[in-house]
Amino acid sequence: MRIVRLIGITWWLQLKMRSRSAFDGLLSLLWPLFFATTIFLMFRQGNAAGPAMLSAAVGAAVMGIWSATSTTAAFALQMERRQGTLELLVAAPTSFALLIVPLTLSMATIGAYSMIATLLWGRFVFGIHITVDDPAMFVVSVAVTVIAIGMLGFLIAIASVRYRTAWALGSALEMPVWLICGLVVAVSSLPAWVRPISWMLAPTWGMAAIRDSAQGGGNPLAGLAMCLGLAAVYGLIGWFLARWMVHSARVNATLALS
Amino acid sequence: MKGISFAVERGELFGLLGPNGAGKTTTIKMLITLLLPTSGRAQVLGYDVVKQAREVRRKVGYVFGGDRGLYERLSGLDNLRYFAELYGVAPREQRSRIGELLEMVGLQGRENERVEGYSRGMRQRLHIARGLLHRPEVLFLDEPSIGIDPVGARELRTTVKALVDQGTTVLLTTHYMFEADELCDRIAVIAGGNIVATGTPEDLKKRVSNGTVTEIEVFGLPDGVVPAVQRENGVRSAVVEERGQAQVLIVHAEPGADVTQAVLVQLEGSRVGRLMTREPTLEDAYIELVSAA
Amino acid sequence: MTSLRILFIGGLTSYRALFNWLTPWVLIPTFILSPIVHILLFAYIGRTAGVGDDRYFLIGNAVLNAAIPCLFAMGNTIGGERNQGTLPLLISSPAKRVPLFLGRALPVIVNGFVVAVVALGVGAVLLGVSLPTATWPALAIAVAVCSFSCTGLGLLGAAVALRVRETAVMSNVIFGILMIFAGVNVPLLALPGWMGAVANWLPLTHGIEAARQLAAGSGFAAIRADLFTEIALGVGYAGLGLLLLAWLERESRRKSTLDTA
């Protein structure tokens, strides 16, 4: 109970903080729109229509969730370090991993705003018909994908506790995940050796479930199960990683800048 | 840190003094479980800081000076709510505890403003409230009065005294000697990673400068006077401080020796202003201890 | 002499002081891996959408990535000073402004150039695009010109940073605009007319076009006009930047907006 409350309140306060920052708030709305616009223009140039356009719109929308998470997850702890709060988080009696999960969940939530913005942009600027076959399933799939992406961001954030330069790695993961998880390019069109990596990444399955529920057909539940399962695995890995990273940071004195 | 060893009694206000880089903050960070010692052992309230970190964290509070350590974009109230959550303050108790602390540090009415608009003093007070949320049994104050105005600093001292009166154990570091002198029951002086002295402020003053200090204001101190004074019998040290138009000759005397006349003889021919003889302060003691280390 | 020292030594020193990215842990992901993935991403999207060919996306996106150091590093010459609290010291120094800021631009141009050339080379290998060796010198010149013009725009951004706090947001937005408008992934002809008109006034548009023609086998003569336009735009933006810097500096002293907190 206490854990649910902790995650809930921390998530809410983090969301409040992030929506007040031009960098996290405004940019995480705009940045994916630049890519979405380019993608829409490319598909339009290629005379795509109907389902192909819808698929591109939904994919571009999910890109925003990941980009709001990947770039900020690695940066957030650097910010905490700079403002001297990272030490306070570690010094608290609550497990560090539990504090970071709501942090990255709040980023993914901000990303969900950008998902809506992208869909509206596609609808009203590019006239893409956003028809959703199974709205309830669609919403559930998006929610699960947000959680899974938050958990993937959690892994990145944890790494940056120990390594002060990890922020660069986080930003560098933005586009690879877009590409590998089949957000706009089908996984089957990627080289064969890349595909196993796609399958280990939860967004791949979340994206599949979102597409299935939007277009009808397929089995969104199977995708959701894989997505949640992988998210749980990330959580578990992150939990152990966090203990190890915090220990190492305490030995090497990397929690503070000074 | 080389090898330091000290014990703080429950309910005591213990001061840790030393120059920048001496290892005060490192010591505190080891005690509050932010750093792991490479060797040696430390216990807080009987809990080992390495093996029982969680227990230690529940019982200690940490407040540091300067304006970092707060979430700028959140209101003061939200900052407190967040940390109340992290420290597991019972939900039912949170509201009253936060209200109580806001009143104690004089921030009631301002708690809904964002911290980015707070002054240094307000931030520091919010920091203290944050550190006290979970009613810590031991409070670590790392240079808490740095950069706050004299009125704020005095209020801070009053708050700290009140906490000690209520039974909180406090470990304080500061660069302000009068603050340490006024507050601390006992003091340890760290220099170069070692403890060079421990004792009550009175002990330290006696131990180091068992004797008096004479300050003489001189307008136009001739060359060669200072070495001549230093050679006088009963003089332990003599230094000059510039104060505006005048120079002040500060002479530390051996215990029992009265050197005033001898020094005045050396100053014959110069214009002498005020003359003052005083007991050594903690600052005198500190400077001697640290320069000897 | 002093101005020359400020131009070269001052520029290089401030570059090293403001950027903590001169470590392989930042350098490799930011300046090598990211640009390459950027190229691959759009090449694959192009294949999916059935437009362009790999070479089109290779060149457009490789050159676009020169803009990252050019915009961010240049924008940060003011924003970074502000964050470190050294901005008032810089502004109150007697150093001449033109060499001071142009000096900061030089290392940035080199940085952008190297990023784009590496991306172009590695991207070509990964995608199996052949770029004849004979075209490389001319391509390098086109890339260098693009780095120069983007840095000019970056200098304008640096000037705005005297007033605007969120420099990184601004640089991101400019980057996004370049990506959409400058013919990186979508040919100008496929854009609505007004967008094409805007594109002609942006850096990169002409340079990328020149680079594509070179890779397709055109001689240097065919692209000379494009490169001159690109250079002229760079000079124009840099000049605007220096003017704006001078003006905002005076304004900020008058209105005390040059705060450091």
TrEMBL record, chain A:
* Residues forming coiled coils: none
Record has Transferase as a keyword: no
Question: Which positions fall inside the ABC-2 type transporter transmembrane domain?
Answer: 7-212
Q: What is its main location?
A: membrane
- What Pfam family does this protein match (any one)? ABC2_membrane
Q: Which GO terms describe its molecular function?
A: ABC-type transporter activity
Mind listing the UniProt keywords for this protein, alphabetically? Membrane, Transmembrane, Transmembrane helix
Q: Where in the cell is it found?
A: Membrane
What is the species of this protein? Rhizocola hellebori
Please give the name of this protein. Answer: ABC-2 type transporter transmembrane domain-containing protein
The terms describing its cellular component in GO are: membrane
> How does the record classify its membrane topology?
Multi-pass membrane protein
Task: Look up keyword Metal-binding and say if it applies.
Answer: no
Q: Where, by residue number, does the polypeptide cross the bilayer?
A: 21-43, 55-77, 89-116, 136-163, 175-194, 221-242
TrEMBL record, chain B:
Query: Where found?
Result: Cell membrane
Question: What is a single Pfam family found in this protein's UniProt entry?
Answer: ABC_tran
Keyword annotations for this protein, in alphabetical order, are: Antibiotic resistance, ATP-binding, Nucleotide-binding, Transport
Which GO biological process entries does UniProt record here?
response to antibiotic
Where does this protein chiefly localize? membrane
Which residue intervals define the domain ABC transporter in the entry? 1-217
Give a yes or no for keyword Nucleotide-binding in this entry: yes
Q: Which Gene3D superfamilies match?
A: P-loop containing nucleotide triphosphate hydrolases
Keyword NADP listed: no
Identify the stretch annotated as signal peptide in this record: none
List, alphabetically, the SMART domains matched: AAA
The family database entries (InterPro entries) matched by this protein are listed as: AAA+_ATPase, ABC_transporter-like_ATP-bd, ABC_transporter_ATP-binding, P-loop_NTPase
Topology relative to the membrane, per the entry? Peripheral membrane protein
Superkingdom of origin: Bacteria
Question: Listed GO molecular functions?
Answer: ATP binding; ATP hydrolysis activity
The terms describing its cellular component in GO are: plasma membrane
Name of this protein: Daunorubicin resistance protein DrrA family ABC transporter ATP-binding protein
Q: Which organism is it from?
A: Rhizocola hellebori
Give the classification, highest ranks.
Answer: Bacteria, Bacillati, Actinomycetota, Actinomycetes, Micromonosporales
Automatic annotation (TrEMBL), chain C:
Q: Which GO terms describe its molecular function?
A: ABC-type transporter activity
Q: Which Pfam families match?
A: ABC2_membrane (PF01061)
Major localisation: membrane
An individual GO BP term:
response to antibiotic
Claim: ATP-binding is one of the keywords in the record: no
Give the transmembrane region(s). 21-45, 57-79, 100-127, 139-162, 174-195, 227-248
Q: Where is the ABC-2 type transporter transmembrane domain?
A: 25-213
Naming one, the record's GO cellular component terms include: ATP-binding cassette (ABC) transporter complex
**Which locations, inside or outside the cell, does it occupy?**
Membrane
Name the chain's protein: Transport permease protein
